[in-house]
Amino acid sequence: MNRLQSIREIEGLSQAQLGQQLGLSAQMVSAIEKGSRPFAGDLTILGYSEDRLNIPDMSEPLHRSRASTKVAARKRAKELLRLAGEVFEELRRKTDGAPVLALRRGEPFMDVGDIDDFARDLRHALMVEESGPIRNLTAVAERAGACIVPISVEGVDGLSAWVDDVPVIGLNPTVPGDRFRLTLAHELAHLLHHRKTTEASESEANLFASTLLFPADEFDDLVPGSLQLRDFVNLKSSWGVSVAALVYRAHEIGYIDDRRYRSLQIQMSKWRRNEPASFVPVYGELMNRLIAVNGGSRQVAMDLGVSKRHLDELSKWHNLRIA
Protein backbone atom coordinates (compact mmCIF):
# COMPACT_ATOMS: atom_id res chain seq x y z
CA MET A 1 0.00 0.00 0.00
CA ASN A 2 1.20 3.55 -0.70
CA ARG A 3 0.04 7.14 -0.57
CA LEU A 4 -2.30 6.81 -3.54
CA GLN A 5 -4.47 4.27 -1.78
CA SER A 6 -4.27 6.20 1.48
CA ILE A 7 -5.46 9.41 -0.18
CA ARG A 8 -8.14 7.53 -2.07
CA GLU A 9 -9.55 6.04 1.13
CA ILE A 10 -9.49 9.39 2.95
CA GLU A 11 -11.32 11.01 0.05
CA GLY A 12 -13.69 8.11 -0.60
CA LEU A 13 -12.65 7.82 -4.25
CA SER A 14 -12.67 4.83 -6.57
CA GLN A 15 -9.51 3.94 -8.47
CA ALA A 16 -11.12 5.30 -11.63
CA GLN A 17 -11.93 8.62 -9.95
CA LEU A 18 -8.42 9.00 -8.58
CA GLY A 19 -6.97 8.00 -11.94
CA GLN A 20 -9.00 10.71 -13.63
CA GLN A 21 -7.36 13.34 -11.43
CA LEU A 22 -3.90 11.95 -12.20
CA GLY A 23 -4.44 11.19 -15.87
CA LEU A 24 -4.10 7.43 -15.28
CA SER A 25 -6.35 4.46 -15.92
CA ALA A 26 -8.03 2.63 -13.06
CA GLN A 27 -5.92 -0.40 -13.92
CA MET A 28 -2.71 1.63 -13.63
CA VAL A 29 -3.81 3.05 -10.26
CA SER A 30 -4.51 -0.48 -9.06
CA ALA A 31 -1.08 -1.68 -10.20
CA ILE A 32 0.67 1.25 -8.51
CA GLU A 33 -1.20 0.65 -5.25
CA LYS A 34 -0.16 -3.01 -5.33
CA GLY A 35 3.45 -2.03 -6.01
CA SER A 36 3.65 -3.86 -9.33
CA ARG A 37 4.14 -0.62 -11.29
CA PRO A 38 6.13 2.47 -10.29
CA PHE A 39 4.40 5.82 -9.91
CA ALA A 40 5.76 8.46 -12.25
CA GLY A 41 2.91 10.94 -11.87
CA ASP A 42 2.56 14.17 -9.93
CA LEU A 43 1.54 13.79 -6.28
CA THR A 44 1.30 17.55 -5.88
CA ILE A 45 -2.00 17.36 -7.77
CA LEU A 46 -3.32 15.60 -4.67
CA GLY A 47 -1.71 18.00 -2.19
CA TYR A 48 1.35 15.88 -1.32
CA SER A 49 5.00 16.32 -2.24
CA GLU A 50 6.81 13.83 -4.45
CA ASP A 51 8.69 12.26 -1.51
CA ARG A 52 5.44 11.31 0.24
CA LEU A 53 4.59 8.26 -1.86
CA ASN A 54 5.64 5.87 0.91
CA ILE A 55 3.61 5.72 4.11
CA PRO A 56 4.57 4.58 7.64
CA ASP A 57 3.80 1.15 9.05
CA MET A 58 0.72 0.93 11.18
CA SER A 59 -0.87 -1.65 13.44
CA GLU A 60 -4.42 -2.64 12.59
CA PRO A 61 -6.66 -0.11 14.35
CA LEU A 62 -9.04 -1.28 17.04
CA HIS A 63 -12.34 0.55 16.99
CA ARG A 64 -14.99 1.62 19.42
CA SER A 65 -17.70 1.76 16.79
CA ARG A 66 -21.14 0.52 15.89
CA ALA A 67 -21.44 -2.78 14.06
CA SER A 68 -23.30 -0.94 11.28
CA THR A 69 -20.34 1.35 10.53
CA LYS A 70 -19.54 1.12 6.83
CA VAL A 71 -16.26 -0.41 5.65
CA ALA A 72 -15.43 2.77 3.73
CA ALA A 73 -15.85 4.81 6.92
CA ARG A 74 -13.49 2.51 8.81
CA LYS A 75 -10.89 2.77 6.04
CA ARG A 76 -11.15 6.54 6.02
CA ALA A 77 -10.67 6.70 9.79
CA LYS A 78 -7.69 4.36 9.57
CA GLU A 79 -5.85 6.45 6.98
CA LEU A 80 -6.52 9.70 8.82
CA LEU A 81 -5.09 8.06 11.92
CA ARG A 82 -2.00 6.96 9.99
CA LEU A 83 -1.46 10.50 8.67
CA ALA A 84 -1.88 11.91 12.18
CA GLY A 85 0.86 9.68 13.55
CA GLU A 86 3.15 10.48 10.63
CA VAL A 87 2.80 14.26 10.98
CA PHE A 88 2.81 14.19 14.77
CA GLU A 89 6.12 12.32 14.98
CA GLU A 90 7.88 14.56 12.47
CA LEU A 91 6.74 17.66 14.33
CA ARG A 92 7.55 16.15 17.74
CA ARG A 93 11.12 15.37 16.70
CA LYS A 94 11.79 18.89 15.45
CA THR A 95 10.12 20.76 18.34
CA ASP A 96 12.07 21.64 21.48
CA GLY A 97 10.24 20.67 24.65
CA ALA A 98 7.84 18.26 22.95
CA PRO A 99 6.78 15.28 25.09
CA VAL A 100 8.89 12.15 25.18
CA LEU A 101 7.05 8.99 24.11
CA ALA A 102 6.44 7.31 27.48
CA LEU A 103 3.67 4.87 26.54
CA ARG A 104 4.77 1.38 25.57
CA ARG A 105 2.91 -1.72 24.49
CA GLY A 106 2.25 -3.99 27.45
CA GLU A 107 1.32 -7.61 27.84
CA PRO A 108 -2.13 -8.86 26.77
CA PHE A 109 -4.69 -9.47 29.51
CA MET A 110 -4.34 -13.12 30.49
CA ASP A 111 -7.17 -12.93 32.98
CA VAL A 112 -9.83 -10.38 33.94
CA GLY A 113 -8.19 -10.26 37.34
CA ASP A 114 -5.13 -8.65 35.72
CA ILE A 115 -7.05 -5.56 34.70
CA ASP A 116 -6.94 -3.80 38.08
CA ASP A 117 -3.15 -4.20 38.19
CA PHE A 118 -2.69 -2.98 34.62
CA ALA A 119 -4.92 0.03 35.29
CA ARG A 120 -2.78 0.92 38.33
CA ASP A 121 0.34 0.52 36.18
CA LEU A 122 -1.05 2.98 33.65
CA ARG A 123 -1.87 5.50 36.36
CA HIS A 124 1.77 5.25 37.41
CA ALA A 125 2.98 5.67 33.81
CA LEU A 126 0.75 8.71 33.41
CA MET A 127 2.15 10.12 36.68
CA VAL A 128 -1.23 10.50 38.36
CA GLU A 129 -2.27 9.43 41.84
CA GLU A 130 -3.10 5.77 42.40
CA SER A 131 -6.48 6.83 43.73
CA GLY A 132 -8.82 9.74 43.20
CA PRO A 133 -10.20 11.22 39.98
CA ILE A 134 -7.98 11.79 36.96
CA ARG A 135 -9.04 15.37 36.38
CA ASN A 136 -7.87 15.69 32.77
CA LEU A 137 -7.20 12.33 31.13
CA THR A 138 -6.61 13.97 27.75
CA ALA A 139 -3.80 16.17 29.07
CA VAL A 140 -2.01 13.41 30.99
CA ALA A 141 -2.16 11.05 27.98
CA GLU A 142 -0.67 13.77 25.78
CA ARG A 143 2.10 14.43 28.31
CA ALA A 144 2.98 10.74 27.94
CA GLY A 145 3.35 11.26 24.19
CA ALA A 146 -0.04 10.09 22.90
CA CYS A 147 -1.22 11.74 19.70
CA ILE A 148 -4.93 12.51 20.18
CA VAL A 149 -6.84 13.85 17.18
CA PRO A 150 -10.44 14.32 16.04
CA ILE A 151 -11.78 11.61 13.76
CA SER A 152 -15.15 12.72 12.42
CA VAL A 153 -16.41 9.53 10.86
CA GLU A 154 -20.02 8.42 11.30
CA GLY A 155 -20.38 5.42 13.57
CA VAL A 156 -16.88 5.63 15.05
CA ASP A 157 -16.54 6.89 18.64
CA GLY A 158 -12.85 6.12 18.77
CA LEU A 159 -10.04 4.11 17.29
CA SER A 160 -6.37 3.63 18.07
CA ALA A 161 -3.21 2.26 16.50
CA TRP A 162 0.57 2.40 16.61
CA VAL A 163 1.98 4.34 13.66
CA ASP A 164 5.54 3.10 13.73
CA ASP A 165 6.23 3.68 17.44
CA VAL A 166 3.71 6.50 17.97
CA PRO A 167 0.52 5.78 19.96
CA VAL A 168 -2.33 7.48 18.08
CA ILE A 169 -5.92 7.83 19.24
CA GLY A 170 -8.74 9.28 17.16
CA LEU A 171 -11.87 10.44 18.99
CA ASN A 172 -15.27 11.61 17.81
CA PRO A 173 -15.56 15.26 18.91
CA THR A 174 -19.37 15.30 18.88
CA VAL A 175 -20.07 12.85 21.71
CA PRO A 176 -20.86 13.94 25.31
CA GLY A 177 -17.96 14.56 27.67
CA ASP A 178 -18.37 11.42 29.76
CA ARG A 179 -18.52 9.23 26.67
CA PHE A 180 -15.51 11.01 25.16
CA ARG A 181 -13.48 10.43 28.33
CA LEU A 182 -14.48 6.78 28.65
CA THR A 183 -13.67 6.20 24.97
CA LEU A 184 -10.19 7.65 25.48
CA ALA A 185 -9.58 5.27 28.39
CA HIS A 186 -11.02 2.42 26.32
CA GLU A 187 -8.61 3.16 23.46
CA LEU A 188 -5.66 3.31 25.86
CA ALA A 189 -6.52 -0.26 26.83
CA HIS A 190 -6.50 -1.31 23.18
CA LEU A 191 -3.20 0.44 22.50
CA LEU A 192 -1.38 -1.01 25.46
CA HIS A 193 -2.80 -4.50 25.78
CA HIS A 194 -4.49 -5.68 22.58
CA ARG A 195 -3.02 -6.76 19.25
CA LYS A 196 -6.26 -7.61 17.47
CA THR A 197 -10.02 -7.58 17.97
CA THR A 198 -11.30 -10.65 19.78
CA GLU A 199 -14.58 -11.64 21.41
CA ALA A 200 -13.19 -10.43 24.72
CA SER A 201 -11.27 -7.30 23.67
CA GLU A 202 -14.17 -4.83 23.80
CA SER A 203 -15.42 -5.98 27.21
CA GLU A 204 -11.83 -5.99 28.51
CA ALA A 205 -11.29 -2.44 27.24
CA ASN A 206 -14.55 -1.29 28.85
CA LEU A 207 -13.60 -2.83 32.16
CA PHE A 208 -10.08 -1.37 31.97
CA ALA A 209 -11.50 2.09 31.21
CA SER A 210 -13.88 2.07 34.15
CA THR A 211 -11.14 0.66 36.43
CA LEU A 212 -8.67 3.33 35.35
CA LEU A 213 -11.16 6.14 35.91
CA PHE A 214 -12.77 4.74 39.06
CA PRO A 215 -10.59 2.16 40.91
CA ALA A 216 -12.49 -0.58 42.73
CA ASP A 217 -11.04 0.47 46.09
CA GLU A 218 -12.82 3.80 45.81
CA PHE A 219 -16.20 2.13 46.18
CA ASP A 220 -15.35 1.14 49.76
CA ASP A 221 -14.94 4.74 50.88
CA LEU A 222 -17.35 6.58 48.61
CA VAL A 223 -20.35 4.39 47.92
CA PRO A 224 -23.12 4.18 50.54
CA GLY A 225 -24.57 0.83 51.53
CA SER A 226 -27.90 1.36 49.77
CA LEU A 227 -27.16 2.73 46.32
CA GLN A 228 -29.70 5.07 44.77
CA LEU A 229 -29.60 6.49 41.27
CA ARG A 230 -28.84 9.95 42.67
CA ASP A 231 -25.69 8.53 44.29
CA PHE A 232 -24.37 7.53 40.88
CA VAL A 233 -25.22 10.99 39.49
CA ASN A 234 -23.18 12.56 42.31
CA LEU A 235 -20.26 10.22 41.59
CA LYS A 236 -20.40 11.16 37.91
CA SER A 237 -20.03 14.84 38.79
CA SER A 238 -16.93 14.11 40.87
CA TRP A 239 -15.26 11.44 38.76
CA GLY A 240 -16.24 12.26 35.19
CA VAL A 241 -17.60 8.77 34.52
CA SER A 242 -21.08 8.20 33.11
CA VAL A 243 -23.82 6.90 35.38
CA ALA A 244 -24.26 3.92 33.06
CA ALA A 245 -20.57 3.01 33.38
CA LEU A 246 -20.62 3.44 37.17
CA VAL A 247 -23.70 1.24 37.52
CA TYR A 248 -22.07 -1.39 35.33
CA ARG A 249 -18.88 -1.17 37.40
CA ALA A 250 -20.77 -1.49 40.69
CA HIS A 251 -22.50 -4.59 39.39
CA GLU A 252 -19.26 -6.13 38.08
CA ILE A 253 -17.51 -5.87 41.44
CA GLY A 254 -20.51 -7.00 43.47
CA TYR A 255 -21.72 -3.77 45.08
CA ILE A 256 -25.17 -4.27 43.59
CA ASP A 257 -26.91 -7.54 42.81
CA ASP A 258 -28.65 -8.55 39.59
CA ARG A 259 -32.04 -7.38 40.81
CA ARG A 260 -30.78 -3.91 41.79
CA TYR A 261 -28.82 -3.67 38.54
CA ARG A 262 -31.95 -4.34 36.48
CA SER A 263 -33.90 -1.81 38.52
CA LEU A 264 -31.31 0.90 37.92
CA GLN A 265 -31.22 0.07 34.22
CA ILE A 266 -34.98 0.62 34.04
CA GLN A 267 -34.68 3.93 35.89
CA MET A 268 -31.90 5.10 33.55
CA SER A 269 -33.97 4.30 30.46
CA LYS A 270 -35.97 7.52 31.00
CA TRP A 271 -32.86 9.53 30.19
CA ARG A 272 -32.44 7.97 26.76
CA ARG A 273 -29.01 9.30 25.71
CA ASN A 274 -28.99 12.47 27.80
CA GLU A 275 -27.78 11.71 31.30
CA PRO A 276 -27.87 14.43 33.97
CA ALA A 277 -24.66 16.10 35.15
CA SER A 278 -23.34 16.40 31.60
CA PHE A 279 -20.02 18.09 30.86
CA VAL A 280 -18.10 19.06 27.74
CA PRO A 281 -15.32 16.90 26.27
CA VAL A 282 -11.70 17.87 26.93
CA TYR A 283 -10.20 17.90 23.45
CA GLY A 284 -6.58 17.22 22.57
CA GLU A 285 -4.24 20.21 22.34
CA LEU A 286 -0.81 18.75 21.61
CA MET A 287 -1.14 18.38 17.84
CA ASN A 288 -2.44 21.94 17.61
CA ARG A 289 0.47 23.26 19.69
CA LEU A 290 3.03 21.42 17.56
CA ILE A 291 1.48 22.89 14.43
CA ALA A 292 1.32 26.39 15.92
CA VAL A 293 4.95 26.53 17.06
CA ASN A 294 6.07 25.33 13.65
CA GLY A 295 4.39 28.17 11.78
CA GLY A 296 0.73 27.17 11.55
CA SER A 297 -1.11 24.68 9.38
CA ARG A 298 -0.29 26.31 6.03
CA GLN A 299 3.44 26.41 6.79
CA VAL A 300 3.51 22.89 8.25
CA ALA A 301 1.62 21.48 5.27
CA MET A 302 4.12 23.15 2.95
CA ASP A 303 7.19 22.10 4.96
CA LEU A 304 6.11 18.48 5.32
CA GLY A 305 4.54 18.15 1.90
CA VAL A 306 1.10 17.04 3.10
CA SER A 307 -2.42 18.19 2.25
CA LYS A 308 -3.40 21.25 4.29
CA ARG A 309 -7.02 20.16 4.11
CA HIS A 310 -6.19 16.78 5.59
CA LEU A 311 -3.96 18.38 8.21
CA ASP A 312 -6.74 20.77 9.22
CA GLU A 313 -9.11 17.86 9.66
CA LEU A 314 -6.69 16.35 12.17
CA SER A 315 -6.26 19.52 14.20
CA LYS A 316 -9.67 21.19 14.32
CA TRP A 317 -12.01 19.83 16.95
CA HIS A 318 -14.87 22.27 16.39
CA ASN A 319 -17.32 22.71 13.49
CA LEU A 320 -16.34 19.45 11.83
CA ARG A 321 -18.63 17.73 9.36
CA ILE A 322 -19.19 14.04 10.16
CA ALA A 323 -18.31 12.09 7.01
Give the helices and strands, then pairings.
Blueprint: H1 3-11, H2 15-22, H3 26-34, E1 62-65, H4 71-94, H5 114-125, H6 137-143, E2 147-150, E3 156-163, E4 166-171, H7 177-193, H8 201-213, H9 216-222, H10 229-239, H11 243-252, H12 258-268, H13 286-293, H14 297-304, H15 308-313
Parallel strand pairs: 2-4
Antiparallel strand pairs: 1-3, 3-4
Helix pairs in contact: 1-4, 2-3, 5-8, 7-8, 11-12
Short description:
The chain has 323 residues and is α+β, with helices and mostly antiparallel strands. The protein has helices spanning 3-11, 15-22, 26-34, 71-94, 114-125, 137-143, 177-193, 201-213, 216-222, 229-239, 243-252, 258-268, 286-293, 297-304, 308-313; strands at residues 62-65, 147-150, 156-163, 166-171.
Task: Give short descriptive properties of this protein.
four-stranded mixed β-sheet, 4 strands, 15 helices, alpha+beta
Give a structural overview.
- The structure is a single chain.
- By secondary structure, the chain is of the alpha+beta class.
- The chain is 50% helix and 7% strand.
- A 4-stranded mixed sheet has the order 1-3-4-2, with helices on both faces.
